[in-house]
Amino acid sequence: MTKKIKWFLVGLVVFLLSLITLYWMYWSKPTELPPNEQLMAEINGIFPEAAVSEIQDTIMVDDHHVLVPFISEQNNYGLSYWVWRKSKWSVGKIDTRGEPVIWKVHRNDPSSYYVVWNLHPKDQLQKSAFYLIRNRGFTVTDGLEYYTPKIQMKNEIPLKDQTYGVMKLPEEWVSVMESSVKVSNHSNLDELFGDIYQQQQIYIGWIPYNVSNEETIPEHSVNSNGYYIGNVGTEFVMILNKADLETPSEKGE
User: Fold this and answer.
1) Cα dihedral angle (191, 193, 197, 200), rounded to 10 degrees?
2) What CA dihedral angle connects 172, 177, 179 and 184, to 10 degrees?
3) What is the Cα–Cα distance from 175 to 111, expressed in whole angstroms?
4) What pairing do the DSSP bridges indicate for beta strands 151-158 and 125-134?
5) pTM score of the predicted model
6) Strand 151-158 versus strand 144-148 pairing type
């Protein structure tokens, strides 16, 4: 066997091993999530302040993303975000508070966005009304007038049965988001909650209600610190009140 053939075979072996390694790291099928004890150990190892004492559930968002709500030794209700990458499950974000946030699973695709939460039971919430809102606007550009009508969409979620939950954005909300991005000539949908705030004022908010069906502030769920690690995209969901909303006028008014 000549030296040239030997080097060719060596190069071929290296190439095949590289392909196998790349497949193993980036395209291998996700395995089952580790047991709760291992999840707690990894969270506490990365962020000891979380002091997780109980894993409440493991919620598959898709094949590569899992939401894991937890309770801490200090009786805080938090969230951890897990991602399958490089052939293993890794915690991408740990938050010791459970107020609602938008998890942008795929940053440029609003159809992959979820509202997630883990609210403290001391807040005694009965339900939450989530809203997608686009504010009314009027601009003049190059002598042309542009009017943007208000959009207000509602999705109500019961909260009294369990503290945590996941809400996939309704298709109607996704359509509004995508069309607004196109109108604004934005190529990156991740800017939906950035520059478009200034142009069309699109945002997601929520109104929490207590057991008496009254608006309330969930003080035990919003007053805590959090910890972020990795590349998990989330956005804040602001608390609204009825004054922020438009309701049909009574007949005759």
Assistant:
1) 80
2) 160
3) 9
4) antiparallel
5) 0.80
6) unpaired
Output DSSP code: residue 172.
Answer: H
CB 62 within 8 A of CB 30: no
Structure tokens that stand for 49 in this block: 């302040």
pLDDT tier at 142, thresholds 50, 70, 90: confident
Q: Which among 17-26, 37-46, 86-95, 142-151 has the top mean pLDDT?
A: 37-46
Strands 233-236 and 65-72 come out as unpaired
Phi, psi of 20 (to 5 degrees): -65, -40
**Cα distances (angstroms) measured from residue 242 to each of 74, 126, 219, 239, 247:** 33, 17, 19, 10, 9
Q: Please tell me whether residue 111 adopts helix, strand or coil conformation.
A: helix
Closest C-alpha to 92, from 128, 35, 39: 39
Q: What is the DSSP letter of 215?
A: B
Distance CA 101, CA 32 (A): 26
Quote the Cα angle for 151-188-203, to 5°.
30
Residue 103 identity:
W
Q: How far is CA 79 from the centre of its chain?
A: 11
- Could you report the per-residue pLDDT of 213-253, keeping only the tens digit for each? 999 999 999 876 666 666 789 999 999 988 889 876 544 44
Report the C-alpha gap between 35 and 132 in whole angstroms.
Answer: 36
Say whether pLDDT at 179 is over 70: yes
Query: Comparing C-alpha atoms, which of 114, 99, 184, 116 is closest to residue 148?
Result: 184
